[in-house]
C-alpha cells in the first residue's frame, strides 16, 4: 500500500493531523493507498511557501526551466510501470491504457519543455525612436486541481505548462488517486528548485480551501459542480479560473455510413476507460435508416468486451472508480428504464466485490432522461433513433454542456454543417478520438472555459504586459 506524503515548504511528510483517506482497489476492495487530509493551516503554509519561491523561479532563464522539465520527463518515463500500476490500483483502468496515459504525460512534459522556450510576446510599431512591446510574464502562484480518470496525463499537462512559464505550483490531486499524484510530484520535485512545487492531498474541502487562497490562477479539470464552486471561490481574490469540466458528448450516426463501423466507433467512445473519459460518448443519435443494424452491432460489441481487474492485461472493461460512481451510473440507467428506455444488454449490477458495471446499451431514449441530459461517466451507450440529420444535429446541440461531439457521415456538406453548428469546443468527424497534436479548444457552457491544453495553454498561464520605452527628455534625448 502506498503511504502518501504531502510536500509543503520543500518538506516531504507533512500531514495527518486532520486524519487520512484510504483508497481501495475498485476491482476487489483491498486498500491500496492512504493519504493525509490537509488542514487549513497546511493549505495556507503551502501557498505562503509558494509565494516566497515565486520570484526566483520566475527570474530563472526559460532554458533552465525547460531543461528541468526535460529531466522530469525522463524520470517519469523511467518510473512509468509504477505510475501505471498505481493508476490501475486506485481507479481500475486497464494496465495497457494506464501505461498509455503515462506515456501521454511524458510526451506532454517534453512538448511544453520545447514550447516554453519559444513562447514569446511581440514587438509593436510605434514612434521611430521608441520601443514598444507586449511582454509575457508568469502569473505567480498556480493552484492545480486534477481529476482521477486520467491522473498522470492531465497533471503533466497543467503542471508542465505552469512550470515552464515560470509559475510555482500547488498541486492537489483527486482524493481517489492520491498515490498517482504523490508519485508524480516526487519525480518532478527532484528536478525543481525548493518550493517551486507543493503537494496537498485530501477531499473536496481541501480543494475548496486551496481555491480560496491568495493564488493567481486555479486550473481545474473535473466535474461541472466542482468547477462552478472554484469559479465562485476565485471571485473574492480575483484569481483566474481555468476550467475543463463535465460533458455530455453527442455522437451522430448519419444514414450513409456503414452501421457496423459506426457501432465500433460508438463502442470505443462509450466504453473506453469504462466510460470515464471527459470526451466519452454519452448520447447517440442514429438515423432510422441504419438504426437496426447499428444497434445489433453495438450490442454484439458490448457483449464481447472482456470485463475484469485492470491489472489483467486481457481486460477490456475494468471497474468503475468506486461504488459511489457505480451507484450514480446505475441510478441513471434505472431511471431511464423506468421512464420507458430498454436495456438491450447490461444495465444490471453484477454480484461480487469491486465496482464493476457491464457495458450497457439503451434504446427508446428521450431527451428528458438523465442519461441523455446529464453526464453519466460510465460504460453506458444511450441511443435515440432520429428521422433525419437535421433532427440529430438539433437534438445534439441542445445540452447544458459543450465539451466535444462526433459526427459519422459520408456527406461533406453534413460534416461542414456539424462543425459549424455544434456549440462545443471540439468536433470530430468520422473518428471518436484522435486529432493532430497541438490542437486546443474552448469548452462551452457548463463544460468550462479557457484553453486547457496545446500551445495556447501557455497563454493561459501567463499575463501580458504592454511596455513603452522612450528616450529621456532634453536637448539631445540621449540615455
UniProtKB/TrEMBL annotation:
Keyword Ubl conjugation: no
CDD domains: ALDH (cd07078)
Superkingdom of origin: Bacteria
Domain Aldehyde dehydrogenase: 19-467
UniProt keyword list: Oxidoreductase
SUPFAM superfamilies, per the entry: ALDH-like (SSF53720)
PANTHER family on file: ALDEHYDE DEHYDROGENASE-RELATED
Protein name: Aldehyde dehydrogenase family protein
Species of origin: Micromonospora zhanjiangensis
